[in-house]
Amino acid sequence: MEVVIAPAQELAVLAADAIEALLRRRADAVLGLATGSSPLKVYDELARRHDAEGLSFARARGFMLDEYVGLAADHPERYRNVIATEIADRVDWPADQVTGPDGLADDLPGACAAYEEAIAAAGGVDLQLLGIGTDGHIGFNEPGSSLASRTRIKTLTEQTRVDNARFFDDDVDQVPRHCLTQGLGTIMEARHLVLLATGKHKAEAVHQLVEGPVSALWPATVMQWHPHATVLVDEAAASRLQLAGYYRQTYASKPGWQGL
Ligand SMILES: N[C@@H]1[C@@H](O)[C@H](O)[C@@H](COP(=O)(O)O)O[C@@H]1O
Fold first, then answer.
1. What is the pLDDT of residues 93-119, one digit of tens each?
2. Can 192 be counted among the known catalytic residues?
3. Rounded to whole angstroms, how far apart are CA atoms 34 and 32?
């Protein structure tokens, strides 16, 4: 696992560099998309590169991590709409090439199985962007999630609903109680995981993710088993890391050609 500690804007540039390198190598690359505030600067940087430098998503495929159950099709916080607004509609990404689990399906388990099949049919995810919840969730895999889980329905914790109330007029009652999420086993099959975390409220989750024992109590710790995981954090989110000095030293002496 590689840990990079830098200001938020620099982290966004690093993540965008990795995505750009992938798209320039393979125009039909498969990107794993995350919602929440953590990846927003990355999406801004990608949209800027699209406008200013011709970075194209015309042949790329996109798979989202998760979705709320039951939000109306036109609800602005439905994750499909969030991804359209934050990235897909800002670049040349055909709408039918970006998809997520269907939180409005009549048959939710069927929709989850179909989503797993769609990811597999696309050849799997090349690069998965991730944020992390204050309780250590990735996607919406809340504490207690099986480390081998696949896409399925989950119940959100009270903590997550309170954290996400800011997107729902600060009214926790408007935050759905259920979601569909790629499982930890699904996420772990992506070939490169790139997690972004900023702010002091993420410091404990980041410490557990990087340095804690692998445990369903802190679901993101499963990433310690991934052969290519990158953790991009600002100073505040890094403030509880025991080996911060070592991570800084390692990154400072990394050969420039290596990329993330
Ligand atoms: N389902 C999303 C996650 O994919 C996201 O990574 C996390 C952190 O959100 P934020 O980046 O806004 O802190 O919580 C949300 O609930």
1. 999 999 999 999 999 999 999 999 999
2. no
3. 7
Beta partners for residue 99, in sequence order: 63
Residue nearest (by alpha carbon) to ligand 1 atom 9: 36
Assess whether pLDDT exceeds 90 at residue 165. yes
Domains in the chain: boundaries: 2-253
The ipTM is: 0.93
Phi and psi (nearest 5°) for 28? -100, 30
Can you tell me the distance from the alpha carbon of 99 to that of 76, in angstroms, rounded to the nearest whole number? Answer: 16
Give the confidence band of 248 by pLDDT, cuts at 50, 70, 90.
Answer: very high
Mutate to test the pocket of ligand 1, among 82, 134, 164, 201 (most ligand atoms within 8 A of CB): 164
Architecture of domain 2-253: 3-Layer(aba) Sandwich (3.40)
20-47 burial, b if ≥16 CB within 10 A, otherwise e?
A: bebbeeeeebbbbbbbbebbbbbbbbbb
Residues near 12 by Cβ (< 8 Å), separated by ≥ 6? 41, 42, 44, 45, 196
Instruction: List the structure tokens of 16.
Output: 């965008």
